[in-house]
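Hey, I'm writing a tutorial for new members on how sequence and structure tokens pair up, and I'd like a real worked example in the thread rather than a made-up one. If someone can provide the structure for the chain below, I'll link this post from the tutorial.
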Amino acid sequence: MMKYIFGPMVLLFLLTGCAPTQPPIVQIPYNETKEPAPDYESEQYIEEKVNPSPLSKTVFDTSKVAMDMAYRNALIKNALSYLNKRDGGDCSGFVNLINIKNGYPYYLEKELSESFDNARKSRAMFNLMNKKGLSFEGRDPRKGDLVFFENTERRKSKHKVKVAENITHVGIVTKIDQDGTVEFIHHSNGKNIVDYMNFNYPKITNKDGKKINTYMKRCPSKNGAPQPQCMNIAFFVAYGTF
């Protein structure tokens, strides 16, 4: 059964990637189904411990996957409740808010504080997940995974960033469609919004009347032609899971 770690209730003051406004801590309820204690003296129990049946393993694995998906769905529902609101204050602040309200699935504050190599909290999140082997880019994400972007600043920084990936933005995956469109929620331009990216169709913004790619930055208009260099896919670095 999947366990979730609850960190300390007092947050450490950290330098942030996008803004450090911290909301009050409110935990969402999570109901666990407790299994009855096994009969350690029964022959069936002893046999299962020595030679576990394929069926019992399948039931256990399926149950674990179902619990993980239920938790991720609850996390996404919580995140989307802040849609079009200002809660979080910036991209990393919004992720931090969801991290707190869902029992710290992404990180504990102490371990995150040890993952800074510049002033950005979004970069520290990436560093931590990368160190744990939880960052990836070559396979499909799942609901609730983080999505990291680089070089999204609208103004060039006066200080040169000496890191492999200049992570400057982070969001949370909320949906993955069959056509490969990834929907994510993030804090941008002062509020929490939903955006899209699709690497199967990287040069168009709409397909069959549906949004599949949106813009991270504004580009000068070219008679309405799509401009992939300003879309989310142009700034994508990796996903991070838990």
